[in-house]
Design a protein that fits this description.
The structure holds two protein chains of two kinds.
Chain A: H1 3-8, H2 22-42, H3 47-63, H4 65-76, H5 81-99, E1 107-111, E2 116-122, E3 125-129, H6 135-148, E4 152-156, H7 162-178, E5 186-188, H8 194-201, E6 208-211, H9 215-223, E7 228-230, E8 236-240, H10 246-258, E9 268-274, H11 275-287, E10 290-292, H12 295-305, H13 322-329, E11 339-343, E12 361-367, H14 370-382, E13 387-393, H15 397-406, E14 409-414, H16 418-423, E15 456-462, E16 476-479, E17 494-499, H17 501-505, H18 508-515, E18 521-526, H19 534-547, E19 551-556, H20 558-572, H21 578-581, E20 604-609, E21 621-626, E22 631-636, E23 644-647, H22 657-676, H23 682-704, H24 709-729, H25 733-745, H26 749-765, H27 782-792, H28 800-817, H29 831-847, H30 860-872
Parallel strand pairs in A: 3-4, 3-6, 4-5, 6-7, 8-9, 8-13, 9-12, 10-11, 11-12, 13-14, 16-23, 17-18, 17-19, 19-20, 20-23
Antiparallel strand pairs in A: 1-2, 2-15, 21-22
Helix pairs in contact in A: 3-5, 3-6, 3-7, 4-5, 4-7, 5-6, 6-7, 10-11, 19-20, 22-23, 22-24, 22-26, 23-24, 25-26, 25-29, 26-28, 26-30, 27-28, 29-30
Chain B: E1 4-7, H1 15-25, E2 32-36, H2 45-60, E3 64-68, H3 72-80, E4 88-90
Parallel strand pairs in B: 1-2, 2-3, 3-4
Helix pairs in contact in B: 1-2
Classes of the chains: A alpha/beta, B alpha/beta.
Chain lengths: 887, 110
């Protein structure tokens, strides 16, 4: 805190400008207008233009450093001239060294890997309050910052530092102007009052207030409603820890505390010394020119340099030499005494010297332990210095880090002088500054050492970035008749074969058993043929553990394969929490929950599908039923994909017609949805298109002539190929609708998909009410892709609309040929029952992640409409909106 | 509206004198004054002041002033000092730009 600002605590800077004369207002307006014009003109300057102005300014400042230091001491009666010269030189030379190579015009930083560029926009007019303690150095520093960032500044010096500040501004301005800066870029208020400050803080054309001053000035700045940079009061605690280099530490503290007679707010205030080195430290202080006060002298100091009413430091002491203070209060000290040291026994009002003292008086405290030391430092930190600065002298890295962790300080200076250390660029790599941000602890907006980047608005030019995509599939897929022979090549001590009762009954299990390597021990686990339940999965895990299995073969439909996937997951990573792993996510790359990488056991998973539908043998998905809680749990991760897929049509030759149709349409839906998905790529498109072509050609044959080997083989491949597509491109709204409807009314998945499909095709092909925001899609192409499918199938048509219509007709024709019900009503579900169910269905469908890759973003009202269209089975080719209640 | 007087190709180096000359021309002119500043890369504070004077005088004489070919940097300066609303802006081909204040102007043909 600064002396005058201490006084001004009782005389607050007004929050509104009252009683200003018209002439005064005209003068202030003219200043702002001039600055605004300068700032506007400045926006045209290039980086070279700006850098050409800065260098001569810095040189002028260096040349005038001594003169300005002398003026400052003469006027303010504070500080040490020689130290102020150093401050002026740091404010120019060190500041220049920091800024000279920095880009502050146009593009300032580029991140090519992120397609991102940062660009600079000047602030405009800055209203800058100046302190009494570092008047000229603050001017020099801010002028350099302002020019570097193409801003104009109106300076408001402290009333007791007006002459030296205005001289510094004049030197900087004249030099800047001479080298091309716009006229009016700097100005200095003449004989101003607090009312002037209040008026300018609220002026509509002042864009930023930079308040380097006492708390009331900072408070006024932040209360003005303008963006503001402020500083906070300091009360720097110092921990002199027992492992510190005592020689260096004591000298550093003396350097810092006596620098400019202690006027830098980052200077040491209370030194907490470990008991083991306390006496040695005080002896060293004394040897180097400090006067160690006895109890009586400490009491004298308490009464005199601290105001007993307010508890703050006395203004008369600020920036005065130790010997002058001693003489003034009647304390006998040696003539060359640099520092008065007063032992204290606590922090707070009962220990007056524990507050900030911007003069060469230092409090010291003996700490019996590290814990006590840290607590006392924290007490000092909280006694008026939150967010400012703290210092530690130590060679124990753990204690240094702990200190940094507990103390609330924007700058934690290690093994260096506090004041000069906090300035930056002298003892460390902190950014050089004359304004210390104290963060929220000090009521500021930043803890930074205020620098050029606080004088800029940073704009970010973000180019469209497309994440890399992938095509991930099991690394071994064996297909066509007798592909199951390949199981022999996989060595195994113990294999668990997971299957359903039907597979055992019709002899498929024996087929696999006969193909196993002779030394492999095969154990069969029969599970119900329904979506797997947790209980069933855990039984499987038990079996895997019992036999210490190294291989799992899943022989069955999607449910069996899903069950095997989850059994493998829990067997390999017993701690895996299925509930947690099923957490919803939007982007696989950014998902919160990661699947376990560490595996206690390892088992190869071979999937042998016995339906030509789900494609679960190659997908990274598994669905589980949690009967206890009455819900489905969907797991999705590439680690779930089977290691080997064996797509052998002999296992589907006996599929009943109904199952053939259902699973075949499921396959078609997978392919059509993957084809228009927002994650579609050239890799998935090729698979999707091929699968569609195969389904249209072979599904009717497989349905009508179930013993046709070629048809069965092609359909079996189609299901796998479609799954390769949707494993990487995902599905869409058709699946979201089908999941909800199928679960509610116990309709087979493929059948549910078929009921929705023609309507979803029409829906996706139409111009969306809402486009899906997806970085992977460029423009809206679903209708065009459907047209490509129509071309592939040779359906004819001249325009895209005609081709889409033909595709829908072809799909409807296929459904008819498979004797699919053409409406939900055909399933015998009554209208009232369906009407009651729709709101719930829509909610579940909207919660389903499947639609998030749909090319068209579905509105809830549109989901209602689609359900009703499917209920009534109205011709999708009509493409007419329905009049239905919304959910 | 009376015919426009055009000050062609105002030289960047002599923009101040050109603006002062244009200001004097306003004495004898009514209608619209078009200043071609297409070769002016940037303006300084004196030029800003000269434009402010010009605008003040033009407003007093009910003369509209159009700036032809103002580049984006100059346009930004005028915007920051709030002079942009005092002028109309023509592109290099003499076509008016569609700004809100010109909303009532007839659209340019395609």
């Amino acid at each position: 805190m600064i002396a005058s600002e201490v006084v001004q605590e009782r005389v607050q800077i007004p929050l509104a400008a009252e009683n200003l004369s018209t002439e005064r207002i005209a003068y202030l307006d003219q200043l702002v207008n001039q600055a605004q014009t300068a700032a506007a003109v400045f926006t045209q300057f290039s980086q070279d233009d700006v850098d050409r102005i800065i260098k001569p300014m810095v040189l002028a400042g260096l040349e005038q450093a001594q003169n300005l230091a002398r003026l400052a001491v003469e006027e303010t009666r504070l500080g040490v001239m020689e130290d102020k010269v150093i401050k002026n030189m740091v404010a120019t030379e060190f500041a220049y060294n920091y800024v000279k190579d920095k880009r502050t015009v146009g593009v300032i930083r580029e991140f090519p890997e992120r397609n991102l560029v940062e660009m600079a926009e000047p602030i405009g007019v800055i209203f800058s309050l100046l302190p009494i303690t570092n008047p000229t150095s603050t001017v020099l520093f801010k002028c350099i910052m302002a020019i570097k960032t193409r801003n104009a500044v109106i300076f408001s010096p402290h009333p007791k530092a007006w002459r030296c500040c205005s001289e510094a501004v004049k030197i900087m301005y004249e030099t800047a102007l001479k080298h091309g800066a716009p006229e009016g870029v700097f100005s200095c208020l003449e004989s101003h009052t607090l009312q002037d400050n209040a008026y300018l803080m609220r002026h509509k054309d002042v864009r930023l207030i930079d308040a380097t001053g006492g708390p009331s000035a900072v408070k006024a700045a932040y209360s003005s409603g303008k963006p503001a940079l402020g500083v906070g009061p300091g009360n720097t605690p110092v921990y002199l820890e027992k492992t510190a280099d005592l020689n260096t530490s004591v000298v550093d503290i003396i350097i810092s505390k006596t620098f400019d007679n202690g006027t830098i707010c980052a200077s040491e205030q209370t030194v907490v010394i470990d008991d083991e080195i306390y006496d040695a430290a005080l002896k060293k202080f004394a040897d180097l020119g400090a006067h160690i006060c006895n109890e009586k002298e400490t009491k004298l100091l308490e009464r005199t340099v601290i105001d007993p009413q307010t508890g703050f430091m006395q203004p008369m002491a600020i920036g005065q030499k130790a010997t002058d203070i001693a003489r003034f209060i009647g304390l006998a000290v040696k003539p060359n005494t640099k520092l008065l040291i007063a032992p204290i026994h606590g922090v707070g009002r009962e220990h007056p010297l524990s507050v900030e003292k911007l003069f060469p008086v230092l409090a010291v405290y003996r700490a019996k332990s590290v814990d006590e030391a840290l607590k006392v430092c924290l007490d000092v930190n909280h006694a008026g210095g939150l967010g400012h600065t703290a210092v530690i002298f130590s060679r124990n890295d753990e204690i240094i880090r702990k200190f940094g962790d507990v103390i609330n300080a924007g700058r934690v200076i290690v093994n260096s002088p506090g004041s000069v250390g906090a300035l930056g660029a002298v003892y460390n790599d902190l950014v050089p500054t004359f304004s210390f941000g104290c963060g929220t602890g000090g009521g500021n907006s930043t803890t930074d050492n205020v620098n050029i980047y606080h004088y800029l608005n940073i704009k970010r030019l973000a180019r469209r970035t497309q994440n890399h995509m992938w095509f991930r599939v099991p690394n071994q897929i064996y297909f066509n008749m007798n592909a199951v022979d390949n199981v022999r090549q996989f060595p195994s001590r113990a294999t668990i074969l997971v299957t359903n009762p039907a597979m055992e009954r019709i002899g498929h299990v024996d087929i696999v058993r006969d193909r196993m390597a002779p030394e492999a021990h095969l154990h069969v686990l029969v599970i119900p043929d329904a979506e797997p339940e947790v209980k069933v999965v855990m039984q499987g895990v038990e079996a895997l553990n019992f036999y210490k299995a190294d291989q799992i073969i899943a022989l069955g439909g999607g449910s069996v394969i899903d069950a095997a996937k989850i059994m493998k997951l829990k067997y390999e990573s017993p701690a895996a929490d299925l509930e947690e792993l099923a957490a919803p996510f939007l982007d696989l790359r950014k998902r919160v929950i990661q699947y376990p990488a560490e595996k206690i056991n390892r088992a190869r998973l071979i999937a042998i599908p016995t339906t030509s539908g789900t494609g679960s043998e190659v997908t990274p998905f598994a669905v589980l039923t949690d009967k206890e809680r009455g819900r489905k749990v969907t797991l999705a991760d590439y680690s779930l994909s089977p290691d080997v897929a064996i797509v052998d049509p002999q296992f589907v030759m006996s599929m009943p017609k109904g199952l053939t149709a259902d699973t075949g349409i499921d396959c078609l839906t997978h392919a059509l949805e993957a084809g228009v998905s927002s994650y579609a790529s050239a890799y998935t498109d090729s698979n999707a298109m091929q699968a569609i072509r195969l389904v249209f050609k072979y599904l009717p044959i497989a349905y009508e002539q179930p013993r046709d080997e070629e048809a069965r083989s092609m359909m079996h491949n189609a299901a796998c190929i479609a799954a390769l597509a949707f494993s990487n491109a995902s599905v869409g709204v058709n699946h979201a609708l089908a999941h909800a409807f199928g679960a509610r009314f116990s309709v087979a998945h493929g059948r549910a998909n078929g009921l929705m499909l023609p309507h979803v095709l029409a829906y996706n092909a139409a111009v969306p009410a809402k486009f899906m925001p997806s970085p992977y899609q460029q423009g809206y192409v679903a209708h065009k892709k459907y047209a490509v499918v129509a071309d592939l199938l040779g359906l004819g048509g001249q325009t895209v609309e005609e081709k889409v219509r033909n595709l829908i007709v072809a799909v409807e024709g296929l459904l008819d040929r498979l004797q699919f019900p053409r409406s939900i009503a055909d399933l015998g579900i009554s209208r009232p029952e369906f009407e009651r169910a729709v709101p719930g269905l829509v909610k579940i469908a909207f919660d389903d992640p499947s639609w998030r890759s749909n090319p068209r973003m579905p509105l809830m009202s549109e989901l209602v409409e689609l359900f009703w269209k499917a209920y009534e089975g109205r011709g999708a080719r009509e493409l007419a909106p329905a009049q239905r209640k919304t959910a | 509206m009376a015919t426009s007087a055009v000050e062609p190709n105002i030289d960047e180096k002599q923009i101040i004198s050109a603006l002062h000359a244009a200001t004097e021309k306003l004495e004898d002119h009514d209608g619209e004054l078009v200043l071609d500043i297409s070769t002016v890369r940037r303006i300084d504070t004196n030029a800003v002041r000269a434009l402010e004077e010009l605008v003040q005088l033009a407003e007093g004489k009910a003369v509209k002033v159009a700036l032809r070919g103002a580049n984006i940097d100059v346009y930004k300066v005028l915007k920051l000092v709030k002079l942009d609303t005092k002028f109309s802006f023509l592109n290099g081909h003499g076509q008016r730009s569609t700004k809100l204040e010109n909303f009532h102007a007839e659209p340019t043909a395609k």
